[in-house]
Amino acid sequence: MDKSSFIPLILGMAAATYLPRLAPFMFFSDMKVPRVVDAFLKSIPVAAIGALIVPSALTATPDMPAAGLMGMGFTLVYGLFRGGIIVPVLGSVGVAYLVMTFG
Amino acid sequence: MKKQDLRRAVRGGIPIFIGYFPAAVAFGILAKATGVTLLEAFLFSAVVFAGASQFIALNLIATGMGPVGIVLTTLLVNFRHFLMSTYLSTRIKEKAKAWYIPMAFGVTDETFSVLSFTTHELTRTFVLALEFSAYSGWVSGTLSGFLLGGFMPEVLTQSMGVALYALLLAILMPELKKSVRSLFLAVSSGLLNWLLVAMDVLPTGWSIIVCILIIASLGAVLTVSIPQKEEAHG
């Protein structure tokens, strides 16, 4: 490929990324859907997040996978008792950092 | 109202920023090593704004693949966002359609996840401010990586990478505590994805699409056959 400019490639990639993100808003936002389709759509977040976490999180810290897992363990245990986002996220980073540094 | 939306968006956006920044630094470093200019590296992140596919593109450039192949790969890798936007289009009730143009640009795995488990109304201000905090982490990380190189210690970079997964888990936890069905679906989806990734038969990005299609269908069947109380989200 012509190394002098990646700009056309970048624009092509931008279109390939943006159009699938945009199309549903243009076509589906006013649509009335049957109950079973609605139930399908409402299940998307749980299905997506489950697959986004596993198995990628198992190798979040490739040099020492146990550190990432212990960080995730903190988030899990914290989440059993308390809500919120900032503390469980910063805590997981802190635990992973400590385990990698001193573990 | 606006102020409250902004505050909430920053609270949700900080964890995404923490996760995106080090990943984008790695992208900036790799882009430079691949022979991409500073302007092009900036444009990759500022115009494409899609984590995994940008790394894949650099790999493919290095192997000598032409632009058409790389664009098609990008389409495959990022097509899961079509499903995520479909869900969000049922949640965001924006009367002025033009606002969907910037909103759709900011749909990523992480912004989608935060938005889908936000119980209050998804206002224009909240959606755009959340997406902007993610975007600023990605773009500023790319520039920092390109210009400064490996300025962050490796241990810190890897630890901060955990933030993205911790964020997803923290968002999901209240729902999992509330609903056995959601717990079952989320665990099933993770196990199915693990299996698909281990089998290594699908192109990158498609194992997640297959998981969403199968597990959300299962969710629909369970919902219709075993009705339960209306969920707080959606």
Helix count of chain A equals: 4
The total count of strands of chain B amounts to 0
Mean pLDDT of chain A: 93
The termini of chain B sit apart by: 21 Å
What is the helix/strand order of chain B?
HHHHHHHHHHH
Q: What Rg of chain A, in angstroms, do the CA atoms define?
A: 20 Å
Sheet-strand content of chain B, in percent, reads: under 5%
Q: What is the helix content of chain A?
A: over 70%
- pLDDT averaged over residues of chain B: 93
Order of helices and strands of chain A: HHHH
Report low-confidence residues of chain B grouped into runs of 5 or more. Answer: none
How far apart the termini of chain A lie comes to: 45 Å
Question: How many beta-strand runs of chain A?
Answer: 0
Approximate strand percentage of chain A: under 5%
Q: What value does the Rg of chain B take, in angstroms?
A: 19 Å
Regarding quaternary structure, what we see is: heterodimer
Largest interface: A-B, 79 and 109 residues
Main sheet record of chain B = none
Structural class by secondary-structure content of chain B: mainly alpha
User: What's the helical proportion of residues of chain B?
Assistant: over 70%
What is the overall number of helices of chain B?
11
Task: Tell me about this structure.
The complex is a heterodimer of chains A (103) and B (234). Chain A has helices spanning 7-28, 35-53, 65-81, 86-102. Chain A has a domain at 33-102. With 103 residues, chain A is mainly α. Chain B folds into 2 domains: 2-160, no CATH class; 179-234, no CATH class. Chain B has helices spanning 2-34, 38-48, 51-63, 67-78, 80-91, 100-105, 109-116, 124-148, 154-178, 180-199, 206-225. The mean pLDDT of chain B is 93. At the A-B interface, helix 1, helix 2, helix 3 and helix 4 of A face helix 1, helix 2, helix 3, helix 4 and helix 5 of B.
